[in-house]
């Protein structure tokens, strides 16, 4: 993988080479580790690296969630982990799940953290403060960003599902965000949207507004999202080629598939089964 390779190119490569739409989220909680590591935050790298090794040929992306590292003063382990991913799965992009959302020089520092310190290929962002909170990330050539749009948590209705009376057609806030990402905000062609798997009907609404941008879809697995409905709602292809990539994330169902010494093998089994389920749905969607 070269520095010039764009995030979208990396996604397409990983989808093709690994025949996968599955993203494995890395949310390490030492209290849930297998017996040999249980409760030991110094083993976060070891646990996550074992999951990466077991699933590297099954995924379209890895998504480490920064809070799970920072809470245990394990940022150095996250740096090591990304370097390990580069070694064992150089064609698989890394999405840093940080949900940053600030402006000006602060946003510039967050962008530097994501792309220079950790070496991520993509980052998750909150768009609430507007385009100038996103713009610093777009200055990094080839790097991507997924903006929160229609999230899977119940509280998402508090803002995301509200209608905007002063915008033509009175769209919901999440539809308006989708239109901005499909259009004027996407100045580097590398923006995508975060939409929850627990709302497949609303994934379809996002797709109508943003037909070509990539979607990061958390919520499959432990959160109860339906993999088949998710792919049907969000995946698009023409002539056997992906036209609208989707990245379907599963975290806890993969990470904590077993509490025993076989945790990595169990993680691989769950990841493989999920990948196959997504592939069948992808084929039915026209891939």
If you had to describe this structure to a student in words, what would you say it looks like?
This protein is of the alpha/beta class and 287 residues long. The protein has helices at 7-18, 44-55, 66-70, 75-88, 104-117, 135-138, 173-182, 200-209, 227-234, 252-255, 263-284; strands spanning 22-26, 61-64, 95-100, 122-125, 144-150, 191-195, 215-217, 236-238, 241-244, 246-250. The protein has one domain (7-284): Aldolase class I (TIM Barrel, Alpha-Beta Barrel), CATH 3.20.20. It has an eight-stranded parallel sheet. A two-stranded antiparallel ribbon has the order 8-9. Helix 8 runs parallel beside helix 9 (227-234). It is globular, with a radius of gyration of 18 Å.
Largest sheet: 8 strands, parallel
Which CATH class?
Answer: Alpha Beta
Global geometry: globular
Compute the CA-based radius of gyration.
Answer: 18 Å
**Roughly what is the average pLDDT, rounded to an integer?**
92
CATH H-level superfamily title: Aldolase class I
**CATH structural fold name:** TIM Barrel
The N- to C-terminal Cα distance equals: 25 Å
- Along the chain, the helix and strand elements come as HEHEHHEHEHEHEHEHEEEHH
What is the compact description of this entry?
By secondary structure, the protein is α/β, with parallel strands linked by helices. It has eleven helices and ten strands.
């Amino acid at each position: 993988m070269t520095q010039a390779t764009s995030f979208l190119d990396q996604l397409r490569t990983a989808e093709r080479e690994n025949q996968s739409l599955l993203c494995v989220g890395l949310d390490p909680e030492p209290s849930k580790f297998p017996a040999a590591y249980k409760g030991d935050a110094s083993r976060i790298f070891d646990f996550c690296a074992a999951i990466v090794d077991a699933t590297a040929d099954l995924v379209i992306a890895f998504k480490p969630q920064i809070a799970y590292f920072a809470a245990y003063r394990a940022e150095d382990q996250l740096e090591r982990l990304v370097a390990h991913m580069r070694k064992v799965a150089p064609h698989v992009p890394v999405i840093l799940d940080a949900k940053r959302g600030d402006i000006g020089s602060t946003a510039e520092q967050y962008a530097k953290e994501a792309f220079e310190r950790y070496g991520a290929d993509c980052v998750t962002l909150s768009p609430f403060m507007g385009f100038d909170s996103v713009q610093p990330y777009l200055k990094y050539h080839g790097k991507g960003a997924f903006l929160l749009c229609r999230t899977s948590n119940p509280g998402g209705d508090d803002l995301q599902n509200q209608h905007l009376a002063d915008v033509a057609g009175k769209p919901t806030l999440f539809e308006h965000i989708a239109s901005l990402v499909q259009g004027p905000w996407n100045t580097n062609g590398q923006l995508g949207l975060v939409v929850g798997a627990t709302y497949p009907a609303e994934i379809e609404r996002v797709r109508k507004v943003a037909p070509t941008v990539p979607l990061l879809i958390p919520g499959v697995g432990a959160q109860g999202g339906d993999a088949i409905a998710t792919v049907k709602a969000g995946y698009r292809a023409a002539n056997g080629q992906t036209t609208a990539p989707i990245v379907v994330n599963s975290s806890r169902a993969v990470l904590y598939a077993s509490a025993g010494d076989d945790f990595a093998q169990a993680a691989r089994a769950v990841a493989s089964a999920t990948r196959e389920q997504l592939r069948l749905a992808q084929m039915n969607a026209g891939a």
